[in-house]
């Protein structure tokens, strides 16, 4: 899976308040989607830690992938008081090998989907923590931790397993309400303390995104537009399955509603005001994406010997983009794309529009800078026998442009050719 800046994880973002509930946009990553599937192929890997000390009910602990667990000193078996005199605790950090930097598996290696990278860190009272041990453990395998003996601690056992979600019946909480026709609910389950909603695109069109209304305080809020560009998230094709994970250990009693869906062509389906809020973010993102396209296409198309210079020039051009569209431009865009709403309501969507714009505006220069650094390091020499334009860097750059075009199309940005031959994006008349 392509990576540039941040790891590929599911993202959510609050976008408005609707009927007393917080409305959220769901930005999801590919999970081994299969057309016409009844469920997903996603693995729910976890790390099981088997200790030798402490209360019996606490000796076996299970940690979800991409999370950590702190093991306090009182739960460790000290075998050498001198070596362990200053030891405070051990942190077990488990991550998927595909989650980015810090993995034991090198970037050029095949990254297995059924393994976890484990790091054990020792914390001390009087000096900084240090890495005590690192492992890659495959599903179904177990390993002991002999390196801990050097810290005066009795080694314990680590194993990796695939957790099976517990299916929640239709009469159990939380209730799920579907206000769309295109998304089909396949299953609601619970695993590692959070909920997992499995959906399928039952329409004939690519689904770009969908929105849910949920009880307040259910989610954390990272930046979704940044994830979309950097993570290269593809649309959900007809018949494909997608997952949405929510909750953080507590039982969700209130109703969870699928309130809106947006398709790759920018059309929407669902509760009207929710669709408008969802669409507004894409209108802003599309405005920025069209501008980024007009300022980066020439650099991506540059020959190898000019690539670094052209990327540097494109990065400078992107840094001069306005921080956000002015109010009148934003309202023009909203009036054009959402003509059934009055200006009073549309003005409440300016924040969503600006969020979408700023997300692309922020990440685009960072992405181009990452391309430039890679071009400088590799000097972009195509390998013998490789067709021109098919190097990993070229493929990533072109896919970046593809995703920008997706955002521009979903937002309905209008492109025209200026007098100097360059394309620019303007608000529809």
3D architecture notes:
With 429 residues, this protein is an alpha+beta fold. The protein has three domains: 11-42 and 166-269, no CATH class; 45-162, no CATH class; 274-426. It has seven helices and 20 strands. The strands form five sheets. Strands 1, 2, 12, 15, 17 and 18 form a six-stranded mixed sheet that branches. A four-stranded antiparallel sheet has the order 4-3-10-9, with no helix packed on it. The relative contact order is 0.13.
Brief overview, please?
The protein is built from 7 helices and 20 strands.
Mean pLDDT: 76
Count every beta strand, where a strand is a DSSP E run of 2 or more residues: 20
Number of domains: 3
Shape: globular
Head-to-tail CA distance between termini = 40 Å
Largest sheet: 6 strands, mixed
Oligomer: single chain
Structural class call reads alpha+beta
Percent strand: 25-35%
Residue runs with pLDDT of under 50 for 5 or more positions: 1-36, 99-111, 217-232, 413-429
């Amino acid at each position: 899976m392509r990576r540039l800046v941040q790891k590929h994880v599911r993202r959510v973002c609050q976008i408005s308040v609707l009927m007393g509930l917080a409305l959220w946009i769901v930005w999801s990553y590919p999970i081994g989607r299969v057309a016409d599937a009844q469920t997903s192929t996603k693995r729910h890997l976890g790390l099981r830690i088997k200790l030798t000390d402490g209360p019996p009910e606490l000796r076996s602990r299970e940690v979800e992938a991409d999370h950590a667990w702190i093991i306090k000193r009182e739960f460790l078996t000290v075998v050498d008081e001198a070596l362990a005199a200053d030891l405070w605790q051990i942190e077990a950090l488990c991550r998927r090998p595909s989650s980015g930097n810090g993995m034991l598996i090198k970037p050029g290696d095949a990254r297995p989907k059924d393994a976890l990278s484990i790091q054990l860190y020792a914390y001390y009272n009087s000096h900084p923590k240090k890495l005590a041990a690192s492992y890659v453990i495959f599903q179904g395998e177990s390993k002991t931790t002999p390196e801990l003996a050097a810290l005066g601690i009795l080694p314990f056992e680590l194993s990796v397993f695939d957790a099976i979600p517990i299916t929640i019946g239709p009469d159990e909480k939380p209730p799920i309400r579907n206000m769309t026709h295109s998304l089909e609910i396949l299953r609601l389950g619970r695993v590692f303390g959070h909920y997992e909603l499995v959906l399928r695109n039952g329409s004939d069109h690519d689904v770009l995104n969908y929105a849910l209304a949920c009880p307040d305080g259910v989610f954390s809020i990272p930046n979704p537009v940044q994830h979309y560009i950097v993570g290269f998230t593809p649309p959900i094709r007809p018949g494909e399955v997608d997952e949405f994970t929510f909750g953080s250990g507590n039982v969700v009693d209130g109703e969870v509603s699928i309130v809106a869906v947006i398709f790759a062509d920018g059309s929407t389906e669902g509760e009207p005001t929710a669709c408008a809020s969802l669409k507004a973010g894409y209108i802003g993102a599309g405005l920025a994406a069209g501008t980024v396209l007009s300022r980066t296409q020439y650099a991506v198309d540059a020959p190898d010997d000019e690539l670094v210079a052209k990327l540097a020039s494109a990065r400078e051009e992107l840094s001069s983009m306005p921080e956000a569209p002015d109010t009148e431009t934003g309202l023009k865009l909203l009036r054009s794309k959402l003509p059934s709403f009055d200006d009073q309501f549309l003005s409440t969507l300016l924040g969503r529009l600006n969020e979408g714009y700023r997300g692309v505006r922020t990440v685009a220069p960072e992405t181009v800078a990452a391309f430039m650094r890679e071009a400088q390091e590799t000097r972009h020499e195509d390998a013998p026998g490789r067709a021109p334009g098919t190097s990993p860097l070229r493929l990533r750059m072109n896919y970046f442009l593809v995703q920008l075009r997706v955002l521009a199309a979903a937002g309905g940005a209008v492109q025209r050719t200026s007098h100097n031959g360059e394309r620019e994006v303007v608000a529809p008349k």
